[in-house]
Amino acid sequence: MNTRQRPRVLLIGPRPRPGEPIGGTQVSFSELCENFERSGTFELDVVDTTRPHAYTRGWRRKLSDAFGFAATLAALLQRGKRADVVMFNASSGGIAAAGPWIARVCRQLDRPLVLRVFGGALDLELERATPSKRRRLLDALSSAKLVLLQTEHLCAHFRGAAKLEKLPTTRRLERAPRPRGPRCERFLFLSQLRPEKGLDDALRAIELCPPQCTLDVYGPSLPTTDLLALRNHPRAVYHGALPHEHVARVLAEHDALVFPSTYEGEGLPGIVVEALQAGLPVIATRWRALPELVSDEQSGLLVPPRSPIALAAAMARLSLDETLFADLRVGAAERGRELDASNWQRRLEGWLLNVCGRTADRVNAASNYREVSP
To answer: Do both 262 and 321 map to the same domain?
Structure first.
């Protein structure tokens, strides 16, 4: 495809930054940029919204947010003029706070805007907003040419308020896991170490599990993390933060993922998607959109939120029932294939081509998509 004939997309979103804890939003946005680079359908321009001190509090956080927001708007004003379509990628809170201003600038530049919402809490943001903030958010959603939501719940909630498409969390697992034994004994917890992700419940649950069961904990610590208690735990081993390029290897070394989250913004977590793609059953809570991702008794087991006893029972059941474990591994892999990034990238590029008025390029986009083997 001739480079000059390609439409230009301006991607605005957070990329991982050395020395800062990495969240699912950053991993997903980084993957999105890599997918665009791999496909070659669009000319790519990226504005990185990651700011230092994102996990601190007080004046330093507020100052960082203000400077980051001003820099993003300045970059959009300068570089948006050359774009055929602008795609703003942010968490629910980021969409609520910055989305109306991004939409206003895009209207000023006469450029079509696509909003991609990470996580599953946009309905809660709208519910808690003041009347004026609610009006601004709804206006931004309605003025966008397309709004991309992760979950079926959010699509149903905002149907009629904007032009919507569902774009779930996707991944391209870098390598296939090695064959594992017939028994489920090695459990994995991999997430930011914040209380609402369920780490305490996982630590209590492993103490109630059969003695052959182990729990390995990976993830970046936050100011609220009690590292001393974690490092002194009698049944769990903490391995520190895990670079994303090592996720596939760590998944291959384990039998099942434990994800007892009660995080308010939980959408379709990337680590759960990657675990499914690696053929690991997932034990998750019946919380927010998690049941959309993990089907009980098919690709994993669902337990009530904030119940270490129920979590331990599910872990023990999976450890003692080899037939169930084998069936759930098959179901997990099947569910993981549905969330392969390549297929969803083609859909996304088709939507963007329509938005920027290049519908005739859709066939070219599909034929020019270049697969890269892991």
So the answer is: yes
